[in-house]
Design goal:
2 helices; about 70 residues; mainly alpha; elongated
């Protein structure tokens, strides 16, 4: 994670997913300090929320396109 990394809410699904995978690997490696681990964890949470939000939006779009929306 660098200072040029965009905010999670501005990332595409693929960008957020890829960074989240990297964060998980770094945390699993156990080489980070406690402060670094907490920062990584917080960033990972934001990225996971972004992925969930984008997936929910895609599911809604597919449901509407298929005519299965609860709104009809």
């Amino acid at each position: 994670m660098t200072t040029s990394t965009p905010p999670a809410d501005k990332m595409t699904y693929e960008q957020a997913r890829d960074e989240l995978i990297d964060i998980v690997a770094r945390l699993e490696a156990g080489a980070a300090t406690l402060d670094e681990s907490m920062t990584l964890w917080e960033r990972g949470e934001a990225l996971a929320r972004r992925c969930e939000s984008l997936l929910a939006g895609a599911e809604d779009t597919i449901a509407k396109a298929a005519g299965d929306s609860d709104d009809t």
